[in-house]
Amino acid sequence: MLNKLIKNKTASAGLWYLLGSFSVQGIAVISIPIFTRVMTTTEFGLYSVYFSYVTMFSMLVGLSVYVSIMVAKHEFVEKQFDGYISSILTLSVIVFIIVVVGSNLFFRPLQSLLGFERFLFNCLLLHSYGTFVFHCAKNVYVIEMQHKKYIALTMFWGLSTAILPFLLFATIYTDNRYLGRIIGSAIPAIVFGAWYLLYSILKGKCFFSKKYWKFALAISLPMIPYELSLMVIGAFDRIMIERFTDASYAGIYALVHGMGAIIALVNLAFSNVWRPWFSEHLNNNNYAKIRKYLAYVLTGYSILVVSVIAVSYEAVMIFAPREFWVGKRILLPVMLAQFSTFLWFLTVFYLYFKKKTAIIGISATLCAIVSIALNYIFIPIFGFEAAAYTTLISFSLMFIFQWIAIRDSNKNKIYDIKAILLTILFITAASSVISFFADFVLLRYGVFVVIMGVFLVAKRKQLIEMKMELFGHGEVATQ
Asked: DSSP of 223-258, one letter per residue?
């Protein structure tokens, strides 16, 4: 199967893309136990709040035009595409300059809102723009199937943002280590952003094109509320924790979210593999095959999530010193929130295929509003733990809203709602039972073995069928 995938150009590109994504996230996960042992919970929290702002600003400072690159590659020939990249990066520079000048002119109200000094605020803007350029470069390398460049970029990004902070810890920022991590993460983004910006503009030699700008903005602007909403649900909670409690709890919360990176990586892999396959078979009206392989995915995902939750309590103690261990109380909702994200992927790709992007944007915006409102109400009452549950609620609502939107279109039974509901029930119930014994290691693993044993026996026929399809003579091996 692997050899056939590698011979297929598109599948091979997907494998390289996943490898690059895994390298960045893998380095980030590996570095967690190192950072938690040299930074206090407060320092860890201050950095996580700062990075939450970088995540949101990286989209705004360039108007999210990087989302248009994948579509533009199919719209314009090679020389035109180089000009297109040059043109939209020039547009992003203009927007960035306006943002920098405007925000510095009105710095006082922004300072009271964000809490950053002017130097750190401008570092945030530069860091955000460098991250924006990084997303542009990634999309270019992926769509042009420049595998080596993509891997080199992701490895540079992952290693430099992990190693440079430690060099600063040992030299300049021996006391304020959160500043060392901020500056150490910002420098690679700024340096790469400046280099790739100059390289692309000189290569494309197109500084202004009404046609290109109009094309890019027509795609990117409608996606800003959607992307911003996802970022609000996924990152804004740390900012609110820091405001309503203190930075220490924001650090604990950020650590536990790092533990969810394993499931998040699987979500990433699933989305990149499933979306093109799903679109192809949906276009060919191959509904039976979609239902069949979705059942395989649900089974595999059930095994993964329950297994990760079972071992995650020890992972927290391995990855962080004792002052972080209070975060074990929110492991269950954080992991289930990642599962909710997976459920959301199941429906969002159908809506993309049907070009019902307005529904996606509206549902994401509504859920972001719900998330902010719930966090505002419950964090002051229940502390940082409330944020984990509000995130779970918000992503669950996104799935529910989008399921309602596609329910009438599901006349051909593309989705097996019974299988989806049973998966939700199994993962929620099994994870809750296992988490109930969080403080009893042997009992927890004993319960896990029993639950998983019963599940595997119940699914034995399907598992044998999956093995034959995926690694034997099934169709997947030939497509």
From this structure: GHHHHHHHHHHHHHHHHHHHHHS-HHHHHHHHHHHH
Closest alpha carbon to 267 in 336, 313, 331: 336
Q: Do 114 and 53 touch, CB atoms closer than 8 A?
A: yes
Most distant CA pair in the chain, distance: 66
The answer to whether 230 touches 59, Cβ cutoff 8 Å, is no
Which residues, including other chains, have CB under 8 Å from residue 402's CB and lie 6 or more apart? 344, 347, 348, 351, 359, 360, 363
Taking the C-alpha atoms of residue 479 and residue 474, their distance in angstroms, rounded to an integer, is: 10
If you count DSSP H runs as helices and E runs as strands, how many of each does the chain have, helices first?
20, 0
User: In the block, which residue shows the tokens 């960035």?
Assistant: 96
Taking only the tens place, the pLDDT of each residue in 132-142 is 999 999 888 87
How far is 219 from 70, CA to CA, in rounded Å? Answer: 11
Residue 286: what residue type?
N
Would you kindly state where each structural domain of the chain is located, as residue ranges?
Answer: 2-208, 230-478
pTM: 0.82
Residue 413 backbone zone (phi > 0: left; psi -120 to 50: alpha; other: beta): left
Q: How many CA atoms lie within 13 A of 88 on its CB side?
A: 29
- The number of residues making up the chain comes to 479
pLDDT digits (tens, 9 = 90+) for 266-300: 777 777 677 777 877 887 888 888 888 888 889 98
Q: Match 């929620």 to its residue by tokens.
A: 428
In this structure, how many other beta carbons lie within 10 angstroms of the beta carbon of residue 368? Answer: 22
How many Å apart are CA 375 and CA 253, to the nearest integer?
Answer: 14
282: its two tokens: 């949906």
